[in-house]
Automatic annotation (TrEMBL):
It is a peripheral membrane protein. It is found in: Cell membrane. This is ATP synthase epsilon chain. Its main location: membrane. Belongs to the ATPase epsilon chain family. Signal peptide: none annotated. It comes from Candidatus Falkowbacteria bacterium CG10_big_fil_rev_8_21_14_0_10_44_15. InterPro entries: ATP_F1_dsu/esu_C_sf (IPR036794), ATP_synth_F1_dsu/esu (IPR001469), ATP_synth_F1_dsu/esu_N (IPR020546), ATP_synth_F1_esu_C (IPR020547), ATPsynth_dsu/esu_N (IPR036771). Residues 4-83 form the ATP synthase F1 complex delta/epsilon subunit N-terminal domain. The keyword Hydrolase applies. Produces ATP from ADP in the presence of a proton gradient across the membrane. GO terms for molecular function: ATP binding; hydrolase activity; proton-transporting ATP synthase activity, rotational mechanism. One of its GO terms (cellular component) is plasma membrane. Residues 80-111 form a coiled coil.
């Protein structure tokens, strides 16, 4: 069975490091799925959900705020600004942070950095989406 050596790294920690069957990541051009022996590639990633199919066919869901993916012949690495496994995400915290940011957007105060607030909203939405997908996760049956 062919696998991919896959790592997700943030400035704070290694979020994931394991052999996987495939992974799907959000890029500016849409989602891309990487299978073993994919051609080398570098792409920038947008806020969203990374889905990883593990060797036991289980799906791992990770929230990503943005970063880069590097596909090399021997491994695939994501350098993330922030990334959390769905199981580690506090959904209420993400939802509250999203609502605070949405409120700031509507207040239209001059001192507010709107692009930063927009980025915050996208980051928190990715966390909420990851938790929800994780909740609905299923084991893919191969037979
Ligand atoms: P908040 O607005 O909720 O206070 P924050 O702006 O401090 O969040 P970030 O800067 O995005 O959060 O992240 C800071 C650290 O907290 C990172 O390590 C991130 O992984 C973690 N983190 C942030 N939000 C959550 C969450 N909802 N669940 C789990 N970890 C989180």
């Amino acid at each position: 069975m062919s696998t991919i050596h896959f790592e997700i790294v943030t400035p704070e920690k290694v979020v994931l490091k394991e052999e996987v069957l495939q992974l799907t990541v959000p890029t500016k051009m849409g989602e891309i799925t990487i299978l073993p022996h994919h051609i080398p590639l570098v792409a920038s990633l947008i806020p969203g959900v990374i889905e990883v199919k593990k060797t036991n066919n289980e799906l791992e869901t990770v929230a990503l705020s943005g970063g880069f993916i590097e596909v090399l012949p021997t491994k695939v690495v994501i350098l993330a600004d922030t990334a959390e496994r769905a199981a580690d995400i506090d959904e209420a915290r993400a939802e509250e942070a999203r609502q605070r940011a949405e409120k700031l957007m509507t207040e239209k105060r001059e001192e507010v950095d709107f692009s930063a607030v927009q980025a915050k909203i996208a980051k928190e939405l990715a966390r909420v989406k990851a938790v929800r997908r994780h909740r609905n996760r299923h084991i893919i049956k191969t037979d």
